[in-house]
């Protein structure tokens, strides 16, 4: 019932960063073919915020591959652990959430996960099922299985410790509780982003210490946010996350998704192709060569934008989003619904900075003047850089600010 092991390995290891135990994975896949028992694959998400984004899609897509090969996916909702707060990558302890907040987020995000996972082949479990029931004795036993020095091996903890920043006791509990989830589930493998490696390995250790067969661990790359850049050939930037506001959410509208894709750096877009596109490596290499050969990078980004909108909405929405985007944002396009405002002036003319601030395109005349001098303003499609530029009474002008997020207003200066 399962495809040959070599085929499964080829697919599952594509794009995986750490696979600690490739030989073990081969052996367990072999075993599952013999017994007909699927591997049980765990991935945990803490419902700290109600939305999933393309970064999460990297992990969920790997999970989906396991499902497509006939294995069993366990989507572990970290209801309990979200209240503790994962210290991974954090300089400070996270704010802790209430149960009601967590339950609300959990509902929306399991639904969103089914945009990628096969609903009929997914088991959803919440770690409140077992963690709520742990007694103080159980917790002492759990804590006795890990040393403080092992915890301090973790970069974010050791850095905080050395810098004299507080590490609270409950933060040490987090990896233990996440690991205990694996003990409770008895899964064969756990998936996570590379930032989760420490937590996943704690789970592996704990399973052995509780006398179970230890889980295998497979991590997937972290997708950088839409604000990432390339420096010396390397993608640099924070990982995509809601808190950094550099994300593309799985439920965002087709136009928003498409617009955000078009905002991505011309080089960084290839990272998105590699991690999320269904194009083959050869096809992606060809796009890179096209770009080097002078192909307009916007065309390449639009290909990715359409693929993503098609995946999370549909093909028709993707075409419509591209059309709409061109209308609003392409070089000379003026959108259909530009507002018109009539402004009055006491003098013979109206100062451009005043017009910009009166229409709300900028917050103050100071900001307006600066923006003009920096070249961020067009009047009737012509860029102006004179901070004292004047508009004449009785005339109508089209003002535009911004380059990526362009905004327009028609201004009529009252006679
Ligand atoms: N940008 C990303 N790219 C790839 N994987 C990601 C990304 N962000 C989160 N993940 C992975 O998704 C899983 C669930 O992450 P989770 O929802 O707990 O978010 P998180 O990493 O704690 O984000 P945040 O710090 O914004 O709350 C983890 O395995 C994590 O590594």
Automatic annotation (TrEMBL):
The cellular location(s) given in this protein's UniProt record come to: Cytoplasm
* Every RNA-binding S4 domain range: 350-414
Q: Which reaction does it catalyse?
A: tRNA(Tyr) + L-tyrosine + ATP = L-tyrosyl-tRNA(Tyr) + AMP + diphosphate + H(+)
- As recorded in UniProt, its EC number(s) are 6.1.1.1
Give one GO biological process term: tyrosyl-tRNA aminoacylation
SMART domains from the entry? S4 (SM00363)
* First-tier enzyme category under EC: ligase
Q: Name one GO molecular function term.
A: RNA binding
The listed location of motif 'HIGH' region is 47-56
Span of the annotated motif 'KMSKS' region: 239-243
Output the Pfam families linked to this UniProt entry: S4 (PF01479), tRNA-synt_1b (PF00579)
Q: What does this protein do?
A: Catalyzes the attachment of tyrosine to tRNA(Tyr) in a two-step reaction: tyrosine is first activated by ATP to form Tyr-AMP and then transferred to the acceptor end of tRNA(Tyr).
Q: Which family does it belong to?
A: Belongs to the class-I aminoacyl-tRNA synthetase family. TyrS type 2 subfamily.
Q: How does it assemble?
A: Homodimer.
Q: Which protein, by its recorded name, is this?
A: Tyrosine--tRNA ligase
According to its UniProt entry, this protein's organism is: Labilithrix luteola
